[in-house]
Amino acid sequence: MRYLWLCFAVFFGTAIKASTGLAKGNSEGISKFKLSFFQDTVRKDTSAKDTLLNDSIANIRKTLYNRFSDSVKATPDQLSLFPAISLQQYVKGQYAGLYVQEPSGEPGSVQNMFIRGASMPLLSRREVYQTQPLVILDGIPLITEHPFAFDLQQFDFNRPGPATNVFANIDMNNIASVEVLADLSASAIYGPRAVNGAIVLTSKKPGSVRSISFNSYIGMVQRPSVTTINGKYENAFRQRFYDLYTTNGRYSDDENYPIYLSDSLNNVYSGRSDWTDLYYRNALIHGINFGISGGTSRANFRFSLGNTKNQGVADDTGIDRYSAMFNINMKPVPWLVFSAMVNANRLERDRNRYLRDRFAQVNYFPDLSAPLPPNKQFYADYLNQYNKGFDDNKTNLIQGFARIGVEFGKFKWSTTFGVDYNEGYRDVFYARTLLQGNSYASNFYGFNQRLMLENKGSYDFAPAKNHALHVEIGNSIQWDTYKYTNAYAYKGANDYIKINLLESDPNNSNYLNPLAFPRELTYRFLDKTGDNLLSFYGKADYTINDKYMISATLRTDGSSNAQPTKRWFVSPVVSAAWSMKKEFLQDNNAFSDLVLRASIGRMGRLNAYDNYAQGPQYTATTGYTGNLTVPGYNAIAVLTRPYSAGWIGYGIPWSYSDQIDIGIDAGFFAERLRLSVDLYSKTEKDLILGVPDYAEYGYKQSLESGMSVNNRGIDVTIKADIIKQNMFGWTSSLNLNHNSNKLKSLPRGLNELVIGNRLLRVGQSFDQYWLLTNDGIYNAVSEIPVVDGQPLKYNGIALQPGDPRWRDINGDNNIDNNDKTLMGHSLPTISGGFDNNLRYGSWNLNLNFYFNLGRKLINQDMANRFDFVNREGNSNISSVKEITFWEKRGDYSKYPMYNPWSTVIPYRTDQDLFLENASFLKLRTVALGYDLTKLLSRKNIKVSRLYVYGSVHNVFTLTPYTGQDPELVSYDGFDTGYGLPIPRTYTLGVKMDL
Length: 994
What we know:
Blueprint lengths: L1 H19 L11 E2 L12 H5 L8 H7 L2 E2 L6 H4 L7 H5 L6 E4 L10 E4 L9 H6 L3 E4 L2 E2 L33 E7 L2 H4 L10 E6 L7 E12 L8 H15 L13 H4 L4 H4 L5 H4 L3 E13 L3 E13 L6 E16 L2 E15 L4 H8 L13 H11 L3 E19 L2 E20 L9 E22 L5 E24 L31 E23 L3 E12 L8 E12 H5 L6 E15 L41 E2 L6 E14 L4 E20 L8 E24 L3 E18 L6 E4 L2 E4 L7 E3 L2 E4 L8 E2 L2 E2 L1 E2 L2 E2 L5 E3 L7 E2 L5 E3 L6 E11 L2 E11 L2 E3 L1 H7 L1 H4 L43 E3 L2 E12 L1 H6 L6 E14 L25 E10 L1
Parallel strand pairs: 5-8, 22-25, 33-36
Antiparallel strand pairs: 1-2, 3-4, 5-6, 7-8, 9-10, 9-44, 10-11, 11-12, 12-13, 13-14, 14-15, 15-16, 16-17, 17-18, 18-19, 19-20, 20-21, 21-23, 23-24, 24-25, 25-26, 26-38, 27-28, 29-37, 30-35, 31-32, 33-34, 38-39, 39-42, 40-41, 42-43, 43-44
């Protein structure tokens, strides 16, 4: 922590010292931005940008917009220096208010984004899906994978299918600008899909001058350094517990002791632990992008091709992306413009080979009494058996639009048809040697599709001198479709005939005919859901004297996912700005700009599931070996209770978000120091929550509206040109967000609600853990409290020496849920980035830091290590041991030595024993580059730009956390140990424009 504050202190002190002594200067090289609530009308006027129409908004309004430094901290050109494979990796730590979770370093895996906090409690991946910001590419709101497919399986580790990050299709070399819209004044034009904020990507546009670009890098990901263990180490670890809590202190006398550890002479488990060469690796990465553009002012184009390959450092993971992008503009007559864009990508991903994920996929657990051995030879044999099968993951993505725009004087009109489509395939086969003679095969195909038709018209005029009015109307229709088909089967005829779907009785004359219901255990699933959204909006911006601006947006949206009696929702948004520089400080040289702005508005929130509009229903989940099934016939359960879900009441209204934002943008000393501060409050109302109820009818819960949550906080962005000379320059920027959340109300007026291992209590933060307070260990009977002759109990079980000393909060002499308290936060209270760019001549050095503060996590990985008694030998998901079981992680010495055989389960995760501070400061990137352009120009070599660079990423992490990496945690705040390492990466690259 002190290192982080030291960095901040140096930054602020140097910036203030340098700025106060500056003389007047120009702002050359400083990128410009518009006020956030103007962004949707000017800098995101895609019809103007994409169709070569001249922006006819009055110059007086342009002056007000363009005065301030850009709110985007890093340009896409800078972002593209990072060898990222996903949009989330590009933008992490770059924008105030945007928090990115990267729970695994596995290339192409899913990452989560939150703008100004989570808009609801994250109880499952359903809620994570509903809290993600909207990503927009050239005006097309991109569709993501719907979580309804999770209903197929019992575990939500990964979504069925490829489970590939759909935002891995963004090649930053094709992007001209990246904007993060955090408040409604900026995102309202995109409607309820942007209620969680929006990330707007604008691709590079064609030009009338021919240009060629080439960008490429090659690099290496470095394998992590790990400490391996074997059976002797594990026996020594467990021996301490036997010495304390067994009569003879010998685990060899314990008939329940696992066989794989009982023989210390067994070299398979107690010999060399040399498996890491087969699991970890130094891997190559590369990226290449070639683009060409040209034409005339009447017709022009841009075309690019690219390939990016990113291999992971562990478990043979990796992703290969092939991409192509095409933009074209045509202007046959002065008043008519046609433009189109196509962005196509192919993603091929090698997934991890976790036992956990494989068993969750097949819904089948073999004998788990003997885990994978740490011996290289035996682990290699396992990999050979795994390689007899296959796990093919492929995803195809395409986005595109066709737009026609007309302009008659001050009137503009555009019509856009857009599409976003992605489809995924996953074909899997596991040989019988992996499942004790029970082979498995499956096929998944699914797609997500969004079609969009948008009309937009605008008119600009000046009602009076120094007055400007911009009026805009528009409507859009969006059709969303999500569909999948999935089939899997056990017990294939052999490993060469993967699934036998023919009659197996040769005495039957129809033995070559396909079976309607094969004797093999075969399951088939298909499902489809959709969402249609019809929207109308009107918007007006009024500017007076280049000092005052007021903007109002009114829209109405109708959704097919809303109930018939509540189909439409009206959303108003109002914003205003005041240039105090022009009002009071025109002759003040210290202030180059000063603007106060505010916005207030309401935006509807779409229901994510179409069944919310259908009233009461049910889903049956009964099947062979616990496999999930769908309602059907021919002896497959249809009316079998219990139901997993389905009670949905009538009269459920739209959920909506009320948001207030007050901000100030300031420039000092000829823009050498720039500051942007936003105070905000977001209140989500009428959210839907599953309330446990209707058990007498076979249901587990009732989905009801009435939950309300609030996020409030501050966004701060500071940028300073600390040194600005011809030969030497130093620019630093800091962005941070402080956010706090609170649960305001629950359905039915409840004050608190227990859902799984979470407690939701009105007036408290909804991202807190619900834990017992651990005060040590009871070493003797005399230490255990006694009340009225009765010793302290845990849920009716008398505590014994060797049990945890859990705090009896309510003093009733019984430890239970009433003694749990809410503590910690799974989301950071402060997050952001700190960037430094230093220039000397043609040399450039960049240092980029990323930090999270105030965040805690549960070290479940360590809890599992100590809870060896309850995790040994069972055939369930908690007993799975990966090859990384033979890797030493964490600090063993910080945990008390409880009696692991105690029936109170002393190493349970619902206690603060495993709650750790997960704050961190990372040096994320060090990049050194040299601009060869001037050197080549002196040699009469015509190159617009030639820039070479080398970089190191994920350099170091400062954190008090004792586990692997404080970032490798899922949305729920539990570190299960399954996140693959985020590797240190070295790259060499070149950027060239001709």
